[in-house]
User: Which sequence fits this backbone?
């Protein structure tokens, strides 16, 4: 079985771990990863992203839940000005987090990045169509995992048991 590494962005992490009802697709994503030995990672920049949450109680709880996910080892990063050339303008701390995630994917530290953030998807398309195919929505990730690992039923009407 091929083990893949899926990096989840902060919003996916929060969707998996906050106090609200879990979206069915998020539950299915985590279930399929667990069932088929696919690894979910969070990036070190997710901690920085969460640290900016002004709701102190929610921040404390989310940081505590980060501990159950594998952390992606820090990767060498060029200067932010060099990264802007590949991934587009950086105007905020959120942009820095988005680009750090994309750069980890680009380096091959993970196989896929799972995000609902359309800005990240746009930045990935800026790099190349092939690169953008490795940036998945939650639904895309569930579909990919199902296609790769779920058994398929095959009906062969012209073949009979003898």
Assistant:
């Amino acid at each position: 079985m091929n083990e893949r590494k899926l990096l989840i962005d902060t919003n996916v992490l929060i969707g998996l771990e906050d106090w609200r009802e879990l979206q069915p697709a998020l539950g299915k994503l985590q279930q399929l990863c667990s069932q088929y030995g696919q690894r979910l990672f969070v990036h070190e920049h997710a901690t920085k992203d969460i640290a900016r949450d002004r709701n102190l109680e929610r921040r404390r709880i989310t940081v505590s839940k980060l501990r159950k996910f594998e952390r992606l080892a820090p990767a060498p990063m060029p200067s932010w000005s060099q990264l802007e050339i590949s991934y587009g303008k950086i105007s905020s701390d959120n942009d820095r987090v988005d680009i750090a995630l994309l750069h980890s994917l680009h380096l091959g530290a993970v196989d896929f990045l799972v995000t609902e953030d359309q800005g990240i998807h746009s930045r990935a398309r800026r790099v190349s169509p092939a690169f953008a195919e490795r940036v998945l929505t939650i639904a895309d990730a569930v579909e990919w995992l199902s296609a790769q690992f779920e058994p398929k039923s095959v009906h062969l009407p012209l073949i009979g048991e003898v």
